Amino acid sequence: MNRRLPPLYALRAFEAAARHASFTRAAQELAITQSAVSRHIRTLEEYFDCRLFERRGRSLHLSEQARALLPGLREGFDGLARACASVQRDDGVLRLKAPTTLTVRWLLARLSHYRLAYTDAEVQLTSAWMDVDKVDFRQEPFDCAVLLSDGNFPDEWESTLLFREWLIPVCSTADAADGPWSLQRLQAAEQLHPTADRRDWRRWLQATGLHDAVPLKNGQMFDMLELGIVAASRGYGVSIGDLLMVAEDVALGRLALPWPTGVFSGESYYLVWPRSHRAQGRLRRLREYLLAQVQAVAMPKVEYLD
Question: In whole angstroms, what is the distance from residue 185 CA to residue 243 CA?
């Protein structure tokens, strides 16, 4: 079959310009000049005999023909990237993406021990703040990821549940020196919120049946679990933490559990990677190591509400 196509570099310039809605940012991504991007776009417009972009004031908009062209191009470039990755030299490094709080609280120390146990294994960890945990193996440079999720992943991914997220109130050891709190103490406490929508406190109060007795307050709000836990440990109030991730601090007396009831959030931490990845052996070894590390955690004695 005779595949007569416009120049690949022109198609690449168009895809980048369309994605960024900017010739300037496309040029920066492709390491060429803005005028070169413009020339590539003109080449395509001459080839297709139509306009691909329209200027409305300072904004750049796709024409109807360009909107029809873009999805197929994106799919094509994704396919090219996958094809090249399938024959690319394996450098022996696993690039792992993980949420920030999990990295700080648990994962970083375990991976340090993993490197000592397996001197031939290099895991390059990238910590990322994610309001909703996600990874795009087609666009991002990662081999695997740990994500907080309900477990609904693409069919082409391998996934393993590491541990469930159990939400539980945490405070400083001084604030819980007299033991678990009474209902009156919990009602009066300053609430710290790890998320701006206060969803963790709301879930915990509803699951424990305390939502009518304990008001959901507009206390200090943060954008990640870690900040709420740190603030609570310093006596600024009571926050919600993840039971496994605070277990070590509770055992060492750096944190306390004023109301020792853990509530399953409905989500869990999973290790995921593409089924087509070449390093299946090393990925499975990392999985078995992390599962063993989860089992080794000495969990505080609490009541669990599933």
Answer: 21
Q: Are 272 and 159 in contact, with CB atoms under 8 Å apart?
A: yes
Contact present, 222 and 83 (Cβ < 8 Å): no
Bridge pairing between strands 157-170 and 144-149: unpaired
Three-state SS at 25: helix
For the beta carbon of residue 192, count every other beta carbon within 10 angstroms: 25
Token code pair at residue 145: 């990821």
d(CA 160, CA 165): 14
Query: pLDDT tens-digit profile of 279-295?
Result: 999 999 999 999 999 99
β-pair partners for 126: 97
Q: What is the pTM of this model?
A: 0.75
86/91 Cα distance (integer angstroms): 13
Distance CA(255)–CA(170), nearest Å, equals: 7
Instruction: Determine the 3-state secondary structure of 106 from DSSP.
Output: helix
CA distances from 261 to 81, 172, 242, 257, 305 (A): 47, 17, 12, 9, 7
Q: Is the dihedral of CA 283, 242, 176, 235 positive or negative?
A: positive
How does strand 144-149 pair with strand 93-99? Answer: parallel
pLDDT per position as a tens digit, 176-227: 999 999 999 999 999 999 998 999 999 999 999 999 999 999 899 998 899 9
DSSP H or E segment with residue 157 = strand 157-170
Which residue segments constitute the domains of the chain, with CATH numbers given? 8-87 (1.10.10.10), 93-164+267-297 (3.40.190.10), 166-265 (3.40.190.10)
Give the residue among 166, 170, 161 at the shortest CA–CA distance from 191.
170
Of 272, 287, 280, 239, the C-alpha closest to 133 is: 272
Q: What is the DSSP letter of 105?
A: I
